[in-house]
Design goal:
Elements: H1 15-25, H2 29-37, H3 40-57, E1 82-93, E2 100-105, E3 110-115, E4 122-127, E5 133-138, E6 145-151, E7 154-159, E8 164-169, E9 175-180, E10 188-191, E11 196-199, E12 204-208, E13 215-220, E14 222-223, E15 226-227, E16 231-237, E17 240-245, E18 250-254, E19 261-266, H4 270-274, E20 284-290, E21 295-300, E22 305-313, H5 319-329
Parallel strand pairs: 1-19
Antiparallel strand pairs: 1-22, 2-3, 3-4, 4-5, 6-7, 7-8, 8-9, 10-11, 11-12, 12-13, 14-15, 16-17, 17-18, 18-19, 20-21, 21-22
Length: 336
């Protein structure tokens, strides 16, 4: 009777040899055969070549794939900044005595407006098509009305040279209460449905809690690393904050995430069209967006017209053209 061979267990392979074997088994058959027949010297040469390739591809010691010291302010973003021209869709009559500081479109051809000047400041409900004032609330003479927004069926308004704001009933314009905000001053006001967004004439946009108007955070608005000051009337449009730059005919389109200017709207010429009707008219100041119909409305202080405009990006945009727009729109004169 033949004796059975004793069972001999093969030594357990190390993890490295197991990995190498697994790798070779995934090679095509002709490569496995060539590798098995190659000399030790050839294999050593291949190994050295592989190490050289790895050293060439990997970054030097101490260099990370993700730079944690990245400074977005040093990024040249001129390629992503677009310039927009306009065409007039229609004109509407508007009260030439209204020193407009903020406008809001509320649907059904209804505008709400905040007007300024000490002793003349108001909150008003206006019929878009006729320009007629339906309701009017006179503010106390020591307040200069400023930015306005509609949030949860309440009208919120800030005032110039103060950190006080007012809350009104949308239907009756009755004063419901006051609030104190954390901005340095009150200029512009809008909202994104979650936060109240305000400006104070600086280069900052402030995001405020709608419950107590304390600051959630703020962003500094910059274009190509340069701060854009004198942010005034605001409107939230399709995920962007649009801001009048005071005493210019420019509107900055701003990313609310980081304050970066993503576009410039040039409304040059609108004011000049109206000088013959009212030589006392002041600067461009007033943006409203009809979200349902995607209509945009613009006006200014003491303007006898309110315009519905269609915006169009310039088809060709040179670097020198963008530089000229920046010089025109990034203004450095204080005042109000």
């Amino acid at each position: 009777m033949a004796r059975r061979k004793p069972l001999v267990r093969a030594p357990m392979a190390s993890s490295s040899s197991s990995s190498s074997s697994s790798t070779r088994n995934k090679m095509p058959t002709f490569l496995r055969e060539a590798w098995g027949q190659s000399s030790g010297l050839l294999k050593l040469g291949c190994f050295i070549l592989l190490l050289s390739l790895i050293a060439f591809v990997l970054p030097p010691a101490g260099v990370r794939f993700f730079n944690t010291n990245f400074d977005p302010d040093r990024l040249d973003v001129k390629e992503s900044v677009k310039i927009y021209d306009y065409e007039i869709v229609r004109e509407f009559h508007h009260d030439p005595e209204a020193f407009i500081q903020g406008i809001v479109y509320a649907g059904d051809d209804t505008l709400y407006e905040s007007t300024g000047l000490f002793g003349k400041s108001t909150i008003r409900e206006v019929d878009l098509r006729s320009g007629q004032v339906r309701q009017l609330h006179h503010m106390e003479k020591n307040f200069f009305g400023e930015g306005l927004t509609l949030f949860n069926e309440r009208l919120l308004q800030v005032v110039w040279l103060a950190t006080k704001g007012f809350i009104y009933n949308r239907t009756s314009l009755a004063l419901l209460g006051t609030f104190v905000h954390s901005m340095k001053d009150g200029w512009g006001l809008t909202n994104d449905g979650k936060s109240i967004i305000g400006s104070d004439g600086s280069s900052s946009l402030y995001f405020l809690r709608p419950t107590n108007f304390s600051e959630l955070y703020h962003v500094t608005v910059k274009d190509n690393g340069r701060e854009v000051e004198h942010l005034n009337e605001l409107e939230y449009v399709n995920g962007e904050v649009w801001a009048n730059v005071y005493q210019t005919e420019c509107i900055a389109r701003i990313s609310p995430e980081d304050g970066r200017v993503v576009g410039w709207i040039l409304l040059h010429g609108l004011r000049n069209k109206l000088i013959s009707e009212n030589r006392q008219l002041d600067v461009l100041n007033g943006i409203a967006w009809d979200q349902k119909e995607d209509r945009l409305f613009f006006t200014g202080k003491l303007w006898p017209r309110l315009y519905e405009l269609k915006l169009k990006p310039l088809p060709r945009q040179s670097e020198s053209q963008l530089a000229a727009v920046r010089e025109s729109c990034i203004f450095h004169h204080r005042g109000h």
